[in-house]
Every structure is written in structure tokens, then in C-alpha cells.
Amino acid sequence: MKIDVFSRALSTRSRRTGVIAATVAASLALMALGGGIASAAGGGLAPPPVAPALIHVASAVPDRVILTPTETPATTQNVSWRTSLDVTTPQVQLATMTDGPITSSTTITAASTVEMATDLGYKIKYHSALMTGLAPDTAYLYRVGDGETWSEWFEFATAAASNEPFSFLVQGDAQNDVKSYASRTFRAAYEARPYSKAVVHLGDLIDTDVADAEWGEWFSAAGFENAYLNVIAAPGNHEYYPGPQLSRYWKAQFAYPENGPAQTPELKAAFSENVYFTDYQGVRFISLNASVINGPELDAQTAWLDQVLTENPNKWTVVAFHQPVFSVTSGRDNKTLREAWLPIFEKHNVDLVLQGHDHAYGRGNLFANEQNLPAGADPKTSQTGPVYMVTIAGPKMYVPDDLATNNWITNGANLRSTNGYTQMYQTVDVTADEIHVESRKVTGELFDGFTITKSDDGAKLVTDDLTPRDSGPGSARTTINAPELPEVTIPSGEPTTEPTTPPTTEPTTPPTTPPTTEPTTEPTTEPTTEPTTEPTTEPTTEPTTEPTTEPPTEPTTGPTTSPTGGPTTPTNPPTEPTYTPSALELSATGVAAGGSVSMKASGFKPNEDMEIVLHSDPITLGYTKADAAGAVLYTAHIPAGAPIGKHTIVLRGLESGATTTADLTVLAVGAPSTGVKDLANTGASWVGSAVSAAGALLLVGALGLVFVSRRRHATGGAR
């Protein structure tokens, strides 16, 4: 937009002024490039919009409309939306379901409005309203606006007061190129279960916490889905990137129950509307924050989790968070989290533990839960405990670990199903005595599935189940039943035998029996025995030995290696071995617990996500991103509870798998740092600064020329 403004201001018929305008434009472009403004969001697969501010700027017309659950979804409903600052009377109109235009409605004033500046230069408002006094299991119409300007009419249905069947969807990390790629996954899932009542997002919805364009793409990717069903989201580490606090967009646009840990004002603020639970038609959904797990925060979440599960009155439990207890990719190991939460999940026999973060798919259970199964259950396909699942919706993929030594196996868990380099989604159908889960590729192909059956006394069995179901229970319109297709498609004797038997018996049997018995018996026995023995043995032995041995060896070995490696090579990045990071440099060799240490390295994959871990007892210190040249400069906080002594800091590229390490001694709290070193910015950082400075100088010169040119023109000087 700056270029457009300057171009219009400087446009004259003079060739000299044209050069000036071009110089100004080039200067601004150089400044933008130097400052990183022109870089694609997250270094993703698709180019950024030409002018994101023009695409995502807010107006009085409501956008980013989203439903989120309350503690009582049978009688209340949250809704949030975005506008420009022009809107001063945000409100909701609510009406009962009708098959024509709305003739009467109730107006509800928005309960809260959050105003904020965006990274794109404009300001926005987020509004939230609570709809109360609703009837259970009832369909409604609603729209949001300000009394004059309105959204379209949307639909939603309240939860039933009892444990009625329903379906919900699961989406792993969207994060990068959300509109370009993750939109396919969002929409494929909704198409598979158009009557879903909720969707569970497992963190890293976007890449950069304050990027308004990225949040805009996330809403655009989901389309009207967010305004029709309840969105249950858990925060990921990228909702804290670059942080250090949780994205201010989170509470502004997601209204969640305030029933998380609140032992102190600090804990209440840290977990407000990101650690919570809601009960929906017999299922307790629990959201945890796996990015805030140091010291008191981890203890508070763990105690709260145990209490919420102990007091759970529902038959089913689903827990969602970002970093997984068992990792699928990139040599990860969330030991701290696993040691705290895994015993709680097992103690309460949670049904589904849903996670993201690893940019791959994995599903399994503890080996211990494959013992002492009910009679007739096969441990190869069955187990009795919680199901742990890691999934990915977006296009960014990481390097899967070797199955023989993966993080599941080394920690007593069976990785029953795994998949890499594939966008996936999950559909979950909840009925009276079972939960059926299907994991599908973005193309709709069924990849993995299982069914959890549970009696009222709590006896449970989880069984692999690859029988697809074409739709699930429930409907957004309560007067319309779900499609009957599943009952016909799933193997069932009754529907099949009735239509098939009558037509088949009459026409098929009479013609078949007489002709078949006569001709078949005589001709078959004679010709077959004689001609077969001789011709078969002779021609087969001679021609087969020579042509078979020679041709297969050459064509088989040649073509097989390249085509077979073909699919594997692009999916498992071949460039991985070529990324050889430099030695990791630290700002000090010894740092006090509770202090900070800076680090830098180069040679990573450009723009890839980086993970910083303190070993040997793994403590995740944070996440960052390599710059466009593959260089990393990061400052990490050493937890106050870190053991005193020698450690190793490991900097890992999460897409290339490349690592570099450095030794660090953790000193007593308050001790001065040792071996202090100044880490100067090098590489792409100074190049960006230099280019930006050069652009600024060019801009000053261009504006000087503008001033001289206009002064000459005003005084009648020569052009």
C-alpha cells in the first residue's frame, strides 16, 4: 500500500519523476525485504497474498464467526465474531428454526468486546455473546451484527440433555498454508460427517501468534463450519510463537469455560480459557495446555486433570492437547509431560487421548493393556485401555522415527498404526455403547479405524475396525434423522437377503442346473488329462528357464530401484543428510537455574521449525524458526527447577532432523554466569539489516529528488 501511495503522489509526465517513483518503490521493497515483511507466513508451500492488509482488513460487516461450547451446552451457547472499530453496538439475533424467512427474533447484546491493533496496520474488534435460556436438543437460527449491518443467518443445535448419539471431527495441526492446503482437510472431514456437533483442534492452528492474515486464513479454510458446530481447541506451541505469552487472539476469538486450574491468580491467568472442560451428550471433553508444563504450572494442571476425571459423571472421556505423550517423529521425547499425565490417563481409563505437534500420524496403546483380555479377544487387534492418537491436518510434514526404536516402543507402548507425509482427519461417532473412530486421508481413503465398546459397568474393549461407515448419528436439524445409509452399507444380513433372494432364485437356478451338469462332466475329464500333461511339461521347462532368468534380473533391478525409491524420496526429504549444522555456540558455558542463555547456529533447512531441548533428562526449552538462510539465533530460559550440573543443549530441525549440540553447566540459583561470550548477529540477520538500511538511504534520496523537483516546478525552474 505504501508503494501505491507514493506512486500516485509522484506520478507526472516527467521521465525524471518516473525514475524517482521507481526508486521510491525499489527502496520500499528493499526495506520490506530487509525487515522480513515479504517472507511467506511460516516459510510454507504457497506464496503469501500480494497485499494481505487488503484481503483481511476488517469492516462493519461481521466475519470470523465461531461457536464455542459452554459448561452447559444443552441450554447455553457462546458465539464470537470480528469487526472494525466502527461497530459500537455488537449484538446477536436469535430465532427458532423455520423453513422460510425469520419473522421474529430475540436480540442479545454482546457480553464482551476486545479491541486490538494488528500486525497489518489496521485495528479490529472481537465480540463475544452468550445465548442463554435455550431448550435442549433444539435447532436455532442466529446472526451477528450491530443493528444495521448483519451477517447471514447461521444454524446450530443445542446438545441433548441425555446421552444421545452424535458425531464429532478431529483436526491436527493446520499451522502453515492453511487456506491453500489445510482447507482440504477441514472440508473433507465436514463432508464425511455433515451432521457433526463439534470439531476438536489439537493446537498449532496457525504459525505466528499475532499474524492477522494467518488467523484470517484459518477461518477462511473452515468456511461456515465454525459458525455451525462447536469448536473445541487446545493451544499449541505456535500459539505462543514468538510469544512469550499466549496469543492475544486466543481469548478474544474463543470463548471457553472458565473452569481450569485456579489455585493462584497467576495460574488462573495462565490457564484462562485454554485449560477447560465441557460435557456434551455423555462425553467429557478436556483441553490441556502442553506448552505450559514447568514446575507449578505442570503440577496445577496434573492435579486439576485428576480431579476433573475423578468427578466425571459421563460415560466417555476425550482429552485433547498438543505435544504428545508418545512421539512419532524427529526423535522427540516429552518425558516430563508423559511422566505426569500418562498415569492419570491410565488410572481413569480415558477413552481417547488426542494430540498433534509431530506432523505425522500414529495410534496405539500400552502393551500392558493387551493382557488379560476378554474371552475371544485377540491381542493383535484388541486392547482394554486408553487410545493414544497423534494426527496432522496441514501440509507440513516431519521425519518419522524408525519403527523399531520409536518413542512408543521404548516407553512400553504399541504403535499399532502410523503414517507419514499425508494430510489426515478423523471422524468420531458416539452411540450408547460404543465410540467408532476412522482416520482418513485427505482424499477420503480410510487408513485406520477402531471401535471402543463399553458397558454401563465400565468394562471396555478397543478393537481394530476397518469397516467404513458412510455417515454418523445426529443432525443439525433435529426434525430430520441422520441418513440411513450406514445401516445398508455396513454388512447386515437383513437388507441384503430380502432384495437379493427373490430375483436370484427364480431366473438363476433353472437355467444353471441342467446345462451345467451334462456338458461339464464328460468333456472336461478326457481332454484335460491327456493334453495337459505333455504340452505343459515340455514347453514350460525349456522356454521358461532361459527367458525367465535373464530378463527379470536386468529389468527388475534397474527399474525397481528408481521407481520404488521415487515415492519414498520426495516424501522422506532427500536433502536431510545435506543439512549439516555448524557447531552450536552459547553465550555462556555456565548459567544459573532460572537464568537465560543465548545460542546461535547455521546450516539448517531454511525457515524450518526448531526445537531446543536440555538433556539428559529432557526439558524442552522452547521452539523457534530458522531464518531464510537456515541460521538460528535464540535465547532460552533455564527453568529454576533444572538439576544443577552438566547438561547438553540440543538444537534440532524438526523438518530436516538435523541437530547440533553444546555443553552447558547449570549453576545454583543466583550464581554468576561463567564463560560469557558475546554472540553477534551474523549471516542473514546482518544482510537483512544492511539491505533495509540501503533501502532507507535510497528512500531518503528519492524523497530529496521529489522535493527538488517540486520546488523547481513551483518557481518556474527548468524541468
User: What is the fold named in CATH at topology level of the domain at 161-481?
Assistant: Purple Acid Phosphatase, chain A, domain 2
How large is the count of helical segments?
A: 13
Total count of strands = 31
Radius of gyration, CA atoms, in whole angstroms: 31 Å
The secondary structure category is: alpha+beta
Q: Low-confidence spans: pLDDT under 50, at least 5 residues? A: 1-43, 475-576, 682-719
In percent, how much strand structure appears in the residues? 15-25%
- Which overall shape is indicated by the principal axes computed on the Cα atoms? globular
Average pLDDT reading: 80
Under the CATH scheme, the architecture of the domain at 161-481 is 4-Layer Sandwich
CATH class designation of the domain at 161-481: Alpha Beta
- For CATH, the homologous superfamily of the domain at 161-481 is named as Metallo-dependent phosphatases
Distance between the termini: 29 Å
The major β-sheet equals: 8 strands, mixed
Strand order of the largest sheet: 11-10-9-20-21-22-23-17
- Helicity level: 25-40%
Description of the structure:
With 719 residues, the protein is of the alpha+beta class. Among the domains are: 321 residues, Metallo-dependent phosphatases (Purple Acid Phosphatase, chain A, domain 2, 4-Layer Sandwich), CATH 3.60.21.10; 54 residues; 102 residues, Immunoglobulin-like. It is 31% helix and 25% strand. It is built from 13 helices and 31 strands. An 8-stranded mixed sheet has the order 11-10-9-20-21-22-23-17. It has a 7-stranded mixed sheet with strand order 12-13-14-15-18-16-19, covered by helices on one side. A hairpin with a 5-residue loop joins β22 and β23. α1 runs antiparallel to α2, α2 packs antiparallel against α13 and α4 packs parallel to α5. The longest helix has 79 residues. The radius of gyration is 31 Å and the shape is globular. The two termini are 29 Å apart. The relative contact order is 0.10. The N terminus and C terminus are likely disordered.
